Amino acid sequence: MDVTHEGSSTMIFIDKISNTRMIMENALAGKFFKPCFHLNLKKSLVLQKKKGIGTSYKFCYPSKLKIHPPVSHTLNLSNLEVGGVEIQETSYEGLVSDQEIVWPSPDDEIPFWKRDFPSWNVNPEVPNESSVKDSDLMHIIHVTAEMAPIAKVGGLGDVVTGLARASLSRGHTVDIVLPFYECIQKQQINDLALISTYNSYHDGNWIPTNAYRGVVSGIPVIFIEPSNEFFKGQQVYGGSYNELEAYLFFSRACLEWMQVTGTQPDIIHVHEWQIGALPLLYWDMYRYLSLKKPRIVLTIHNMEHYGECRQEQLSKCGLDGSMYATAEKAVDDRTIGHNPERLSLLKGGIVYSNAVVTVSPTYLKETLCSGWLASTLMMHCDKYFGILNGIDTAMWNPATDVFLPAKFHAQKIEGKKLCKYYIQRGLGLAAKSITSSNHVPDATVKIPLVVCITRLVPQKGLHLITHALKHVEELGGQMIVLGKAPDGRVEGEFKHLADLVTSLRNCISIEEYNHNQGPSIRILLMYSEELSHMLYAAADMVLVPSMYEPCGLSQIIGMRYGSVPVVRKTGGLADTVFDMDDQSNPEIANGFVFEGIDEGSLNWALDRAFSYYRDKPVEWNGIVKKVIEIDNSWNNTAGKYIELYNSVRGRS
Ligand code: ADP
Question: Which parts of the sequence belong to the Glycosyl transferase family domain (predicted)?
Fold first, then answer.
């Protein structure tokens, strides 16, 4: 092993696997740095440059050491920290070599995103060495309809898991309570065990209910399983039971479980309309039983869904629905004077929670100015806050992501090119003639690749997504849409688009192909977590043309994987992406932004992005590195939630 010092960085030449242990031993003996180490047998092996202490390094030793020989034998310790996040020992495996890549093909019997991946994130240890530790510790229980990765439909699942892990790492006690959906990915739950059997009320009956406990991604999770038909089916939403009533039952069953087990958290953090009745049930029922301590925080991830509910439906959870049919409580203001008037669980949740959060400052402003809930939010504006979502940078990390055929980070970006070519080959976007060799052809990887990973719903700008497919093709680029449409008609339209027959004139003949087999477009109508990771890594640009977007994670994740965002200026997109051509604030410029909802506006942004990519490659590489290094982690924003929890604690 050779150790050399170059300026502030230390180079270690490793020739054998066992030498990694030797590095640790030498480091522990203080052989090559002024050591500032820390022995913790529970943690994974981490070489981490300590911030602000010159060349001191902190070493944590693993209990189960998994060492893989680095493909590049030279490790630059100055590179080990990416975007403020420590890179684990396994992370440099495959960073730069393509020798081990098994190149995929569209003809593979098992599609490449369904191959077996090394286990990862099944239960990654919650980072307990977060730079921030809070002194005043709390017990926080999240009550939610979604949680990544076991029951994720969109960003809600990511946010709950990311915020819970960030709060845990700051020292708090955190649990998540989730319905035990039949479709839940049980193989990702560790230590699953039945912890209590109790009865919870629904519609005049006490329903026998099981509570299980398990650990998911390092977070303790309580699963509520009623013995009736609720939460049965092959997907999180859209089962054949009454969804609204199922979540009313779930909201009460969570409080009932706390009541029967004597669990009194400081904070019950509820999410979205699904759990909107919990604050009502707490303040008007359970507080008069034995639950006294908790205070309620509601996060609204999307104001489009407000939990429309009839009075008699609300009564099914044991409250008197008619009591809430007033403008000050839960009536849907638009139905006042109609017969029947309707309630909104989201409005009730806003009124009855101690604090209400939405997921970006700009969306907060937008919701105070438009939409029927604006007047309620204005009335409660002293307890209404905009806190930008973060992402879990351990789960979304291109330097360690097991789904990527090659890893990369801002200082070693070559792996990104391999990821792109992998996708191009796997989806048949690379010319057939060159796919037999392992050579990565420059001409193919130079074609600009745009991805759009989204639920296919009107909010996401469906007309702009379909237009982008056409325009990117005209610009000579490639575009992949990975999306699931809950509405059959939308799915049909995208299927139709995928099957459209196009003619391609080459020098000798006219070739006909349908879009999804041609050289530039792929429309993949499905949900795949694995493929989404690969696409973020492969893309040059990530497109988010939403009509409105409370926060948006797709652009944030895309940036973490070096994909430059092209977004419409709305909600959280306006808070996270800043135009490259806006001269007023060049330091924060990180993407391409358009304002209009028309095709011309989108063209303008795409045209500029393509020109940058093609005409200014050096600048483009600079943007790619810059976006990878932007810190949109929960480390940045979880503290705002903790401050908020503290401010409502103990308040009546
Ligand atoms: P929303 O919550 O409105 O769906 P966000 O951008 O906040 O939008 O979050 C979307 C999350 O869901 C991201 O993690 C994105 O990668 C993921 N996602 C969306 N559609 C798919 C899909 N078809 N396959 C895999 N992941 C998807």
Answer: 448-610
